[in-house]
Structures are given as C-alpha cells and as structure tokens.
Amino acid sequence: MSTHDNSRDLTAHSATSVPEAFEDPGLPEHRYRQADLDPKAGKRAERQVVVLFVLSVLGTIGSLVAYFAITPGDTTASVRNANLALGLCLALSLLGIGLAAVHWAKTLMSDHEVAEKRKPIASDSDTRRDAIQALADGAKDSGIGRRGVLKGAVLSAVALFPLTIAVPLIGSVGGDWKISKFKHTVWRKGTRLAKDPSGEPIKASDVTIGSVFHVIPDKLREHEHWMEEKAKAVVLLVRLDERDIKHVPGRESWAYNGIVAYSKICTHVGCPVALYEQQTHHLLCPCHQSTFDVADGAKVVFGPANRPLPQLPITVDDEGYLIAQDDFAEPIGPSYWERLR
Q1: Which of 41, 181, 267, 306 has its CB surrounded by the most CB atoms within 10 Å?
Q2: PROSITE patterns in the record, alphabetically (predicted)?
C-alpha cells in the first residue's frame, strides 16, 4: 500500500474514533471532612479561626502602640526599629485575617460541589431571585449566624485593620508634614560640595572629565535633622566635555568648566538616581528605568518620570572648592498635589 493510502486510512480512522458528544461523568463522590462528621472537630476548627482573628486584632493594636510609642530618632537604627515594629504588627494584622478566612472556608463552610448548565447571560427575575437565595444559603452554610464568637471575631478584625493605615496617615498629615519641606533643602549660597559619606570638600581641580561624585552639603552632620535633610539634598556631580553640554536657557552659569550637579532624587517616585553611563551621558534610575540626559539639562529620555532632575547651580570659591550658588530653583523629588509637573 502506498504512503498516500496509509495517510488516508489513518485520517478516516481518527475521524470515526472521536464521538460527537462526551458522556457527562458527573461529580466525584463527596468526601466529608472531620469537622462535618465530628462536632468536637467542628468546634475545634471554630476556635482556631477565632484565635487567628484575635491575632489580627492584637496586630492592629500593636501597630497603633508602635506608631505612638516608638518615635524614629536621628539614627539609622532608630528608624529601622520603628519601621520594623510597624511592619511586623501590620503583617500580623493582615495575615491573621487572611489565614482565618482560608481556614474558615476549608473547615467550616459548605464544600459540596455544585454543577450548573450554562445559561444565557441575561437573567430573568426568577433567576435573580434564585441568586439572592443562593447568597442567603451561602451565608447560612458558613455558620456565621449561629457562631456568635466567630461573628464577633471577624467583625472586630476587619473593622480594626484599617486603623493600621489610617492612623499613621492622618497623624502625618495633621502633624508635622508640611509641604514647604519638600520645596527647599539645606543647600545655601556658599555651601561647599562634599563627598558622600566622608564629608570631604571637593576641589574643582579634582574632578576630571567622566568622573562622578556622590555629593552632600559640607558640614551636614551639624544640622539637627541631618538624616532627613540628607535624603533631600543628595546630589550627583559629573564633569563633561564642555562641547557636549546643552545649557538650559538662563542656566548657562550654573555649571563650572563642564562640571554639573543634579539632584539624585528621581522625579518619578523618589528613588536614588546613581547609575551613570559615560559614553551617552545618561543617568539611570534602577527602580523603574527612568533615564535622564546629563548633557541636556537632565531631561527625561526614557521611562515614567515626567520632568528633568533639578539642577544645583554651582561655582568655586577663592580656594578652588566647589560651592553652591543657591538652593535648587524647583522642588526636588516626585510630583505631589501642589506640583503636578
């Protein structure tokens, strides 16, 4: 027999072996859980769910205590400890609700499988009435109506959890969170540029073409809140060939012999922009890949940021050290409700 005949026979055999319709296998045999068969097991599962909800409540209370009792200081350790306490309590609060809901569904709620035939999308009034009844039946199956302790636990946990977010947010807005703090930094006229973290002032003669310096204001640690101020004042200093620089109109005097300084705070969400590519003069933000062109006013060339990095105007003093001409001319960091761009 030829190859052509073999292919035709196989095709004919395949076509006749596939049935037009498959028999409905039906639902598998239901397997009852221990809580369905043993009332003691059911009560034990209920107590376990209540304990998880109570843990959530304790986590919420703990987060409020941590927020008011643990105040971040001027050290990295104090900030870390405060954030750690808040994070752990918040995690316990949310995790307790999640685990309780899963355990409740797996041990106490009805787990009988139900299959329905596919129906038209548009439902008539009888179908809608049946759907409402099904919801009522589901609430009845959950057992919440006849488990008062469980009902109280879930309502308490769910009602209190939003406080873990609302209280710190309201406390910050109604407390010491002033928008003016985002508009200004500690840079002032005559402030020397210093290396981060050593604090050593930088001479213009030490900055060669292609070199990059991470910069902070000189004597920053003498400031009362120097950690907070450093977070806003950090700068990236780069020296380019002056022929490659495209000065923004009105800012021709903001650079010195090809040395330019820009804020390190990304204008997208505030991540540190510190990855510099010498050949393209591009600065890359590692968080969301916003890319800025240092040779062209730090304009955005790629990514979600919607405005250039603010430029710090610089010059030199009588000893040849790089100094700031003034503070940034615009707010640093991402946009906010008083600055849309």
Answers
A1: 267
A2: RIESKE
Nearest-5° angle of CA 105, CA 160, CA 81? 105
What is the rounded CA–CA span in Å between residue 69 and residue 63? 10
Are 199 and 221 in contact by the 8 Å Cβ rule? The answer is: yes
320-to-43, 254, 300 alpha-carbon distances in Å = 80, 16, 32
- CATH 2.102.10.10 positions along the chain are 182-324
Residue type, 258: G
Q: Specify the pLDDT at position 69.
A: 86
3-state secondary structure of 84: helix
Residue 176: predicted pLDDT: 47
For residue range 1-33, list pLDDT tens digits in order.
Answer: 455 555 555 555 555 566 677 777 778 888 888
> Of how many residues is the chain composed?
341
The answer to whether residues 49 and 108 touch, using CB atoms and an 8 Å cutoff, is yes
CATH class of 182-324: mainly beta
Please enumerate in sequence order all residues whose Cβ is within 8 A of that of 99, keeping only pairs 6 or more positions apart, or say none.
Answer: 52
Cβ–Cβ under 8 Å, residues 193 and 323: yes
pLDDT of residue 175: 47
Q: What is the pTM of this model?
A: 0.54
